[in-house]
Each structure stands twice: as structure tokens, then as C-alpha cells.
């Protein structure tokens, strides 16, 4: 076999890469240097014996969360993007998501569905109703309910869940509090809940980006580049992050323990494929692609036409106007 043929076989292609629904959920990195070497992408950290290296399975990860003290080289970022893995910059312990990086080789099919639903008041409300019923069960949204009514009902249900969890774990009282400026003063449940939610945002952000959707075009949240991420992440808090956070009420390191347990929950509950299916169902419930698991391959670029629909690119359409006099 020639050297050129071996290089082609070794180079990852879109068809070889795993789909986002089949990926591991996330990897949190802090105080490391991520580089590309001859073997792959690795995280380096200085130790007494020199430099320790841990190689990252970039093609099998949906998302890498870059925490404080982390640096990354351009070749490593290029490899991660080529593998379809999203990079999300986060604060300490995974709290706060600042920015996300997405590969350019993604189809816009789901983005177009999202924009059409977002731009229509009627369709947007229908998406909000579907979100509510995904969280609390089919037919739980009152017929003809407004968005304000849905927000009120959601708030009542979450408060009731907090009370139920506090009673279960024999906590005298619980008040949801998220204040990054006084982070160390918060109780373990609030720390665990904030840390778990932040990691959830990172993973949902990765799923949204992997489908080619816009994180900014939300149907309930608005005014932030993470609006749609917050919308989708809310679907899983009552089932996953809230019960888990309350179970860590006596933990000495609730943030770290929350991240560890959340990874286990993603694997045990198969949440990554669920997130992909839920996003697709929200945006297009009647689509025949509802069972698609988020293929990262992309169609060829096409041209848009209001009458003819999608037209092939790379074609000279000048002949259509050959008889039109030019001034």
C-alpha cells in the first residue's frame, strides 16, 4: 500500500465519524494545555516528573468544556472541529457558559426549521406548548393557554418539586439561589444544582450546535445567545439535575460530585440521543426524520429560489436570461 493511500485511510472523514447522539456527553478540562501531536489531541499538565499527557477521544465526544487555566493550540482546535466536537468555554467548575465553537461543515436543514418556527408567533407558541408537555406530560397544557399562563404553571410545578425534595431529604428549608459573586457562601444543594445545570447547558449547547441550530433563537427564553439552550435544558432539570442536587445536600464537594453523577446519568439514561430527538421533535414533530440521531454529514451547498425551492449549486444559470436585453 502506498504512503498516500495509508494517509487517506488514516484521515477521518465525515462518514467515519460518530453521530452526536452516539457520542459521550462531555469532558471538563481545567488548568491544562490541550495540544495536537503526531498521535492525536492530548491534554498536558506539568508534574514533578515532567509533563503528563492524557489523550482525548475527540471523535467520540459531543462537547469539551474548557474551564479556567486551560489553553488550546490552533492545530488541536482544527482537529476537534474536524471531528464535529463542540468546544464550549465555561467558568470555574463548569458554571457559566461563555462561548461555543462549531464546525462549518454542518447542514442548515434544522436551522431553517428553527427559524421558520421562531419567526411565526403561532408556531412559536406551539413549540412552547410542546416543551411544556415534554416536561410534565401529554395534555398537561390547558387548551388555548398563553405563554404567560404556561410560565406560571411551570413555576408552580418547580416550586412544588423543591418542597417535595426538601421534605424527602429532611431539609428545614430550601431557597433557590444562584449568585456567582457569593458562590462560596451557598449551601451544597445550590452549588450542586448550579454546577449540574451549567454542565447540562454545555451538553445541550453541543447538541444544538451539532444539529446546526442557533443557540440564540429561543421560544421561551430570549435576549441571550443561549436562549434556545436554556429552553431545551429545562426539559431535563426536573427529572435529572434537581433530584440529583438534593441528594448531595451533605456533600463536601457538591460541584465535582454533581459533574461526575451527571456523566453517569447521561450514560445510564441515554440522554444525548434523547436531547437530539427532542430538539427535532420540537422543531418539526411531523418530520420523517424524527428518528434520525443527528448525522454530522452535510448535504452539498444549494441555491434558494422562492418558486423552485432548492437548486443545485455550481451551475451557471446565465442561459435563463440570454434573451433578456441588457442596458
UniProtKB/TrEMBL annotation:
Gene3D superfamilies referenced in this protein's UniProt entry, alphabetically: CRISPR-associated endonuclease Cas1, C-terminal domain, CRISPR-associated endonuclease Cas1, N-terminal domain
InterPro entries the UniProt entry points to: Cas1 (IPR050646), Cas1_I-E (IPR033641), CRISPR-assoc_Cas1 (IPR002729), CRISPR-assoc_Cas1_C (IPR042206), CRISPR-assoc_Cas1_ECOLI (IPR019851), CRISPR-assoc_Cas1_N (IPR042211)
E.C. no: 3.1.-.-
GO MF annotation: an example: endonuclease activity
Binding positions (Mn(2+)): 154, 221, 234
Cofactor: Mg(2+); Mn(2+)
Keyword Flavoprotein: no
Pfam families recorded: Cas_Cas1 (PF01867)
Keyword Manganese in record: yes
Keyword tags: Antiviral defense, DNA-binding, Endonuclease, Hydrolase, Magnesium, Manganese, Metal-binding, Nuclease
Known role: CRISPR (clustered regularly interspaced short palindromic repeat), is an adaptive immune system that provides protection against mobile genetic elements (viruses, transposable elements and conjugative plasmids). CRISPR clusters contain spacers, sequences complementary to antecedent mobile elements, and target invading nucleic acids. CRISPR clusters are transcribed and processed into CRISPR RNA (crRNA). Acts as a dsDNA endonuclease. Involved in the integration of spacer DNA into the CRISPR cassette.
The family this protein is said to belong to: Belongs to the CRISPR-associated endonuclease Cas1 family.
Assembly information from the UniProt record: Homodimer, forms a heterotetramer with a Cas2 homodimer.
HAMAP family linked to this entry: Cas1
The protein, known as: CRISPR-associated endonuclease Cas1
UniProt source species: Actinomadura luzonensis
UniProt lineage: Bacteria, Bacillati, Actinomycetota, Actinomycetes, Streptosporangiales
Amino acid at each position: 500500500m502506498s504512503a498516500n493511500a495509508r494517509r487517506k485511510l488514516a484521515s477521518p472523514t465525515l462518514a467515519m465519524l460518530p453521530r452526536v447522539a452516539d457520542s459521550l456527553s462531555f469532558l471538563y478540562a481545567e488548568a491544562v494545555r490541550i495540544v495536537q501531536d503526531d498521535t492525536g489531541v492530548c491534554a498536558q499538565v506539568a508534574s514533578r516528573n515532567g509533563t503528563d499527557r492524557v489523550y482525548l477521544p475527540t471523535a467520540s465526544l459531543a462537547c469539551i468544556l474548557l474551564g479556567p487555566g486551560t489553553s488550546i493550540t490552533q492545530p488541536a482546535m482544527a482537529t476537534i472541529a474536524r471531528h464535529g466536537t463542540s468546544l464550549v468555554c465555561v467558568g470555574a467548575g463548569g458554571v457559566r457558559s461563555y462561548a461555543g465553537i462549531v464546525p462549518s461543515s454542518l447542514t442548515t436543514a434544522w436551522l431553517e426549521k428553527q427559524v421558520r418556527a421562531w419567526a411565526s408567533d403561532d408556531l412559536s407558541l406551539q413549540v412552547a406548548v410542546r416543551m411544556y408537555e415534554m416536561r410534565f406530560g401529554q395534555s398537561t397544557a390547558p387548551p388555548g393557554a398563553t405563554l404567560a399562563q404556561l410560565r406560571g404553571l411551570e413555576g408552580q410545578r418547580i416550586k412544588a418539586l423543591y418542597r417535595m425534595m426538601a421534605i424527602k431529604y429532611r431539609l428545614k428549608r430550601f431557597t433557590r439561589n444562584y449568585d456567582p459573586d457569593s458562590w462560596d457562601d451557598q449551601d451544597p444543594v445550590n452549588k450542586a444544582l448550579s454546577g449540574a445545570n451549567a454542565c447540562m447547558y454545555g451538553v445541550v449547547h453541543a447538541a444544538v450546535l451539532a444539529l446546526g441550530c442557533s443557540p440564540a433563537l429561543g421560544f421561551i427564553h430570549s435576549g441571550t445567545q443561549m436562549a434556545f439552550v436554556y429552553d431545551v435544558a429545562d426539559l431535563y432539570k426536573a427529572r435529572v439535575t434537581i433530584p440529583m442536587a438534593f441528594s448531595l445536600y451533605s456533600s463536601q464537594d457538591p460541584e465535582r460530585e454533581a459533574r461526575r453523577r451527571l456523566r453517569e446519568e447521561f450514560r445510564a439514561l441515554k440522554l444525548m440521543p434523547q436531547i437530539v430527538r427532542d430538539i427535532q421533535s420540537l422543531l418539526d414533530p411531523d418530520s420523517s426524520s424524527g428518528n434520525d440521531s443527528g448525522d454530522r454529514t452535510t448535504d452539498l451547498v444549494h441555491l434558494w429560489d422562492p418558486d423552485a425551492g432548492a437548486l443545485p449549486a455550481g451551475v451557471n444559470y446565465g442561459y435563463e436570461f440570454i434573451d433578456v436585453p441588457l442596458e
